[in-house]
Amino acid sequence: MNEKWILMLLISPFLLLQSFLLFINAKKRGAHPWFWGIWGLIQIPMPTLFYWFFIIWLPARRKRGM
């Protein structure tokens, strides 16, 4: 039982940081910041990977014409 609380205390700062950074970056790019911020609170690291792929990498690749 105590292991679960310790794990939650260790992971919580990373989830909050991920959520905050995704929200701020998505707000700058106009890419649904609330969606990315809330999703960033739920799990780690999938929201960051999906954000990088769909919001940063894919549009940049399309812009270059690849």
Task: Note the main attributes of this structure.
66 residues; mainly alpha; 86% helix; elongated
**Which percent bin holds the helix content?**
over 70%
Mean pLDDT: 93
What about the largest sheet? Answer: none
Strand elements, count: 0
Question: How would you characterize this protein structure?
Answer:
The protein is mainly alpha-helical. Helix content is about 85%, strand content about 0%. It is built from three helices and no strands. Helix 1 runs parallel beside helix 3. The longest helix has 28 residues, at about 1-30. It is elongated, with a radius of gyration of 14 Å. It starts with a helix and ends with a helix. The mean pLDDT is about 95.
Outline the fold blueprint.
Layout: H1 2-29, H2 33-42, H3 46-64
Produce a short descriptive summary.
This protein is mostly helical. It has helices at 2-29, 33-42, 46-64.
